[in-house]
Amino acid sequence: MPLFFSALLVLLLVALSALFLGRWLVVRLATKWCQRKLQAELKIGSFRFFWIQNVSLKFQQHQQTVEIDNLWISSKLLSHDLPHYVALCFGEVRIRTDLQKVSDLSAPFSQSAGVDQKELSFSPSLLKIFCQLFSIHVDAINIMVLKVDTSESLWHIQISRSRFLLDSDGKRLICEVSLCKINSKVLKSGQLEDTCLVELSLALDLCLKVGISSRHLTAITVDVWTLHAELHEGLFQSQLLCQGPSLASKPVPCSEVTENLVEPTLPGLFLLQQLPDQVKVKMENTSVVLSMNSQKRHLTWTLKLLQFLYHRDEDQLPLRSFTANSDMAQMSTELLLEDGLLLSQSRQRIVCLNSLKASVQVTTIDLSASLVLNTCIIHYRHQEFSHWLHLLALETQGSSSPVLKQRKKRTFPQILAPIIFSTSISNVNISIQLGDTPPFALGFNSISLDYQHLRPQSIHQRGVLTVDHLCWRVGSDSHIQRAPHPPNMHVWGEALVLDSFTLQGSYNQPLGLSSTQSDTLFLDCTIRGLQVEASDTCAQCLSRILSLMGPQSGKSAVSRHSSFGESVSLLWKVDLKVEDMNLFTLSALVGASEVRLDTLTILGSAETSTVGIQGLVLALVKSVTEKMQPCCKAPDIPTPVLSLSMLSITYHSSIRSLEVQCGAGLTLLWSPPDHMYLYQHVLATLQCRDLLRATVFPETVPSLALETSGTTSELEGRAPEPLPPKRLLNLTLEVSTAKLTAFVAEDKFITLAAESVSLSRHGGSLQAYCPELAAGFDGNSIFNFKEVEVQLLPELEEMILHRNPFPALQTLRNRVWLLSFGSVSVEFPYQYDFSRTLDEAVGVQKWLKGLHQGTRAWASPSPVPLPPDLLLKVEHFSWVFLDDVFEVKLHDNYELMKDESKESAKRLQLLDAKVAALRKQHGELLPARKIEELYASLERKNIEIYIQRSRRLYGNTPMRRALLTWSLAGLELVALADASFHGPEHVVEQVQELDPGSPFPPEGLDLVIQWCRMLKCNVKSFLVRIRDYPRYLFEIRDWRLMGRLVGTEQSGQPCSRRRQILHLGLPWGNVAVERNMPPLKFYHDFHSEIFQYTVVWGPCWDPAWTLIGQCVDLLTKPSADPSPPLPWWDKSRLLFHGDWHMDIEQANLHQLATEDPYNTTENMHWEWSHLSFHWKPGQFVFKGDLDINVRTASKYDDCCFLHLPDLCMTLDLQWLCHGNPHDHHSVTLRAPEFLPEVPLGQLHDSYRAFRSENLNLSIKMDLTRHSGTISQPRILLYSSTLRWMQNFWATWTSVTRPICRGKLFNNLKPSKKKLGQHYKQLSYTALFPQLQVHYWASFAQQRGIQIECSQGHVFTRGTQRLIPQAGTVMRRLISDWSVTQMVSDLSQVTVHLMASPTEENADHCLDPLVTKTHLLSLSSLTYQRHSNRTAEEVLTCCRS
Question: Hey, how many other C-beta atoms are within 10 angstroms of the C-beta on 1211?
Answer without folding.
Answer: 14
